[in-house]
Amino acid sequence: MTDTTPTNSLFKISDRTKSRNAAEKRFRIYGIAAISIGLFMLLVLASTIILRGTSAFQQTFITLDVELLESKLDKKGNRNIDDIKKVSTFGYNPILVNAVKASLEKNDIQSSLKKKELSGIISKSAPSQLREYVLADVSSIGQTVEFRFLANGWIDGYLKGRYSRESVANSKFASAEQFDLIDELIKVGVVEKKFNLDFILGADASDQRPEASGIGVAMVGSFYLMLVVLLLSLPLGVAASVYLEEFAKKNLFTDLIEITISNLAAVPSIVFGILGLAVFINYVNLPQSTPIVGGLVLTLMTLPTIIISTRASLKSVPPSIRDAALGVGASKMQTVFHHVLPLAAPGIFTGTIIGMAQALGESAPLLLIGMIGYIATNMPTTIGEGLLAPNSAMPAQIYEWAKRADPAFVERAWGGIIILLIFLLTMNTMAVVLRRKFERRW
Amino acid sequence: MKDQLNSDREASLSNGMPKITAENVNVFYDEVHALKDVSVEIEQNAVTAFIGPSGCGKSTFLRCLNRMNDTIDICKITGRILLENEDIYDANVDPVQLRAKVGMVFQKPNPFPKSVYDNIAYGPRIHGLASNKSELDDIVEQSLRRAAIWDEVKDRLDAPGTGLSGGQQQRVCIARAIATSPDVLLMDEPCSSLDPIATAQVEELIDELRQNFCVVIVTHSMQQAARVSQRTAFFHLGSLVEFGDTEKIFTNPSDPRTESYITGRIG
């Protein structure tokens, strides 16, 4: 129409085509820009997490020969366990000071530091570490044993570059002289940075001992949460979806249920948390802060996800398979269990894993039922204890660390995020692999 | 062929009753009146073809014969359908038992995504027709032989049924339907997704199946109806317009609508 040249040559590109092509080109650029921004953000996120978090897996250790003095630990000298137990961790402090002094002497290092400052380079968890060792093996009293202690969080922070001599000038927890001493001790190999397995396997520690805290117990807490979620939400979710999809008549009531389930999937998780607090803890009187309550709450949250994905995968099984089974005289139940469910299984498992991954990363509802805060538990030893003893979960532990004042805890929060992400990535990879492996076979 | 037909007819007459008798069957999908007052008598050892334009109700009627319409919530059926003088819509009839007696083959080949063997063995297994493995093996072999596919699949009984060609799949589906030794075999446009060669094989098979079964086939192809059936019913707009010997329907139809359809003026 706008073409004013007499010929309708294919080589002459009309204005309309030009503007159409330009629009397409623009759209492609927008798309590439959007993807680039996304990838850049992901890169920033991943590199920040790795840069900040990996240092949490290393910890500064001090290796000392400790003389377990009989005069301090067993004054009567009869190795009576009850008497030895009377010596509190406080009584082990002088032994530690002596050990540091001995090490300095042995390596020919001069120091003007006072006793308290000398033992201050060692973690506050060291006395109880010593005490546990002695109580476990009374015959060690009087001998000299080599111990590997955690260094105090401030010393660890100095080695990791968190603190400098200037920044601790006014601190009452660490001093420049201590850092000088550490430099000397590093030279002779008494102080060194090593991989810290206890960060992955250990329990949380109090505010004064960031160096001793680990995510292990919270990991076990998360495991029990997931156990409860899996055992409850998979059978419930699959039974509900199979009934709704294959057996229930379509009427107003089932429509209402369907809408409700879809809406439940969009309910903020903190609402489920307060529901759990009101129902499971206040009304049913289940013990608070426990994985069983957390698991129940997360089950409520995961159920809609599982039901929706299960129904979708049941719907994707072609009706001709149901016809075929019914046609040879299979009952409705046989049709579903022999033919439909096996074909829908990969989709169901994928949905379940994704729902569980969501639940694993959830922290808001756990805050409300008390699975948060310093929970000085040891590892649960039985399944009952695992379900009914107060515990935390990985995301709640990370939140707890991030809000504590000492930057040493923030480092551990980043480290915890790495571990949590490894779990989530593994689960999501499993979901993808399952989906790929069993993709439509008809 | 004609002698054969006559002797078969005599055999069924001597039985004294048709295999299936439908009396005033009406089908409603919600408000839609899909099938209006259909009454037919379907004979033993003969192929009965249902023909008619799309949406005329022939498939709906076929699915009434083994109560496959039960799976559709909005479907309401009135009237009586008797299988050997027993009302299949009686409250005491379990559709599962009925479907073991009235097998069905569908428009699209729909083997289970399992091995060929398991496809055939599934029906006998759930109905407990075989007491041990060798009996089951026999049933599978017999069914595949009768469906004229044994030679093609005997070496790959463990291969998935979905890996066969369309025509082979459909014959496996036929074998699956006859493995439960039904009395009646319903076929809903069994050749509509097959090529001409596979169609010819299936048609030949249908003719053979007539010896042992009462076969009812829905088809879009009038040539197919003429080739394989002895009796033909013409449906139009939900009503049964004409029902009689295939030869008569195609050469000398009594209703003008039938004539219009078979000569290609409607439908």
Oligomer: heterodimer
CATH class of chain B: Alpha Beta
CATH class category label of the largest domain in chain A: Mainly Alpha
Global geometry of chain B: globular
**What's the architecture of the largest domain in chain A in CATH terms?**
Orthogonal Bundle
Number of strands of chain A: 3
**Percent of residues in helices of chain A:** 55-70%
Beta-strand percentage range of chain B: 15-25%
Average pLDDT across residues of chain B? 88
Number of domains of chain A: 2
Which key terms come to mind for this protein?
A: 442 residues, mainly alpha, MetI-like fold, 2 domains, 5% strand, B: 267 residues, alpha/beta, Rossmann fold, six-stranded mixed beta sheet, 11 helices, globular
Can you describe this structure?
With 442 residues, chain A is mainly alpha-helical. Chain A contains 19 helices and three strands. Chain A is extended, with a radius of gyration of 31 Å. Chain A folds into two domains: 58-195, no CATH class; 216-437, MetI-like fold (Orthogonal Bundle). A six-stranded mixed sheet of chain B has the order 6-7-8-3-9-10, with helices on both faces. Chain B has a four-stranded antiparallel sheet with strand order 2-1-4-5, covered by helices on one side. In chain B, helix 4 (116-127) packs across helix 5 (133-146) and helix 7 runs parallel beside helix 8. Chain B is globular. The relative contact order of chain B is 0.17.
Brief overview:
The complex is a heterodimer of chains A (442) and B (267). Chain A has 442 residues and is mainly alpha-helical.
Topology of this structure?
The complex is a heterodimer of chains A (442) and B (267).
Chain A: H1 15-53, E1 58-67, H2 70-73, H3 81-85, H4 93-106, H5 115-119, H6 126-136, E2 144-150, H7 153-159, H8 176-187, E3 191-195, H9 197-201, H10 216-247, H11 252-265, H12 269-283, H13 291-315, H14 319-327, H15 332-360, H16 364-368, H17 383-388, H18 394-403, H19 407-437
Antiparallel strand pairs in A: 1-2, 1-3
Helix pairs in contact in A: 1-19, 10-13, 10-15, 11-13, 12-13, 13-15, 14-15, 15-19, 18-19
Chain B: H1 2-15, E1 20-29, E2 32-42, E3 47-51, H2 58-65, E4 75-83, E5 86-87, H3 95-101, E6 102-105, H4 116-127, H5 133-146, H6 150-153, H7 166-178, E7 184-188, H8 196-209, E8 214-218, H9 222-228, E9 231-236, E10 239-245, H10 246-251, H11 256-262
Helix pairs in contact in B: 4-5, 4-7, 5-7, 7-8
